[in-house]
Design goal:
2 domains, Rossmann fold, alpha/beta, 13 helices, eight-stranded mixed sheet, 377 residues, globular, six-stranded parallel sheet, single chain
């Protein structure tokens, strides 16, 4: 393959998420934010979409070329089979570089190796430790992440702490490019009246009701506290689940489960008017929900993990609690007794969104990686 000159448009194929402009999770948002900016900077972008999720299938949206690939539809194999077919298609395409998200797609780098297509993969968090992947699922993600380090030309982590994990576990070097953040929307504060809420009279949790987000720990610790404020839990799971149902059945009138809040302005209003935001996410690197909380000016109370320490700059932009109900109760008591400190955290949190988390800066870093890979081939 030849070098890509500055005059010739760089061609990048992207897959591993649900597609474009589908925005549901972190990877989908990343594909949207990165893809649109790459196009504006003159890069030719092709995104592979899950065919079953798109009734309308235009060939191009916002300058991004779209390919709709099938998959074997099942709980365990939809994403993997979609990625397998996408990788083969991308290897036969004119793409100069293939960019893949999700470490579960690690083994497919062998295909691109055979075709000698330059590749980069964003491997995300510690998938093999997440409670939802038990037994064979956890073993697969660990193995797939290891394979990613062997088959892809460039490993990308979104935090310094995750870079250390890949170095220690797999002896693999990687490049850190953080997940980006957009400045928070300004929302009408009266929107929270929909839930009979008053400004700064509630704590907030936002995220799926799954064990690795530790909503159970936070809720049970909050119940033990003497706070007169409410605890608002935004999020759910899209299936019947005993873990989520048990939480919703806890008998405390201070708890408010809103379910999913799909209106971005309502969600922004909930963030912007809370007394403090609880962040219990445990296994990721740069977490999009934490970036939102910083962008919306929240006082943040976070589970003490290396990733959350990094994002809040070792306590400069938030407080931490350990993984026990007692420590949650203690941090609530501390927050209740320090309204001025909570106010200071709210006023300063947006300063935590340094250039590192700016989508334009993130895009420039990816272009640098893609150009290097294309010119090496």
């Amino acid at each position: 393959m030849h070098k890509v000159s500055k005059e010739k448009s760089l061609r990048v194929a992207i897959f591993g998420a649900k597609g474009y402009p589908y925005v549901y999770g972190g990877y989908d948002t990343m594909v949207k934010e990165l893809g649109e900016r790459l196009v504006k900077k003159g890069v030719k972008v092709t995104v592979y979409c899950h065919r079953s999720l798109f009734k309308d299938r235009p060939k191009q949206v916002n300058g991004i070329d779209l390919v709709y690939m099938p998959a074997i539809e099942s709980k365990s194999f939809t994403q993997l089979t979609h990625s397998f077919f996408s990788m083969i298609h991308a290897c036969f395409s004119k793409a100069d570089v293939i960019f893949v998200v999700n470490s579960g797609n690690g083994p497919f780098g062998l295909i691109s190796k055979i075709f000698r297509k330059p590749t980069a993969i964003n491997v995300d968090g510690l998938e093999w430790l997440r409670p939802k992947w038990k037994g064979i699922g956890a073993k697969y993600f660990f193995w797939a992440s290891k394979m990613a380090t062997k088959f892809y030309d460039q490993i990308i982590n979104d935090s310094d702490e995750m870079q250390k994990v890949y170095e220690e576990l797999f002896g693999a070097s990687s490049r850190v490019i953080a997940y980006g953040s957009n400045p928070g929307l300004k929302a009408d504060p009266t929107l929270i009246k929909k839930w009979d809420l008053v400004k700064e009279d509630y704590y907030l949790i936002v995220g799926r009701l799954v064990p690795d987000n530790n909503a159970d720990l936070i809720i049970e610790g909050f119940i033990k506290s003497t706070s007169k404020r409410r605890l608002v839990i935004v999020g759910d799971v899209p299936y019947k689940d005993t873990f989520a149902e048990r939480l919703k059945d806890l008998p405390d009138e201070r708890l408010l489960f809103t379910g999913y809040v799909k209106d971005p302005y309502e969600l922004a209003a909930l963030y912007q008017n809370c007394y403090a935001y609880f962040h219990g996410h445990e296994y990721g690197g740069t977490n999009p929900a934490m970036l939102k909380a910083l962008g919306y000016g929240c006082a943040i109370l976070a589970l003490d993990t290396p990733f959350n320490q990094e994002m809040l700059q070792r306590g400069e932009y938030g407080w931490y609690f350990g993984k026990t109900g007692e420590e949650v109760s203690e941090v609530v008591a501390k927050a209740e007794s320090a309204p001025e400190k909570m106010k200071s955290l709210r006023e300063n949190s947006q300063k935590g969104l340094t250039q590192k988390y700016d989508w334009d800066h993130v895009t420039d870093q990816y272009i640098e990686v893609f150009q290097e890979l294309a010119n090496k081939s």
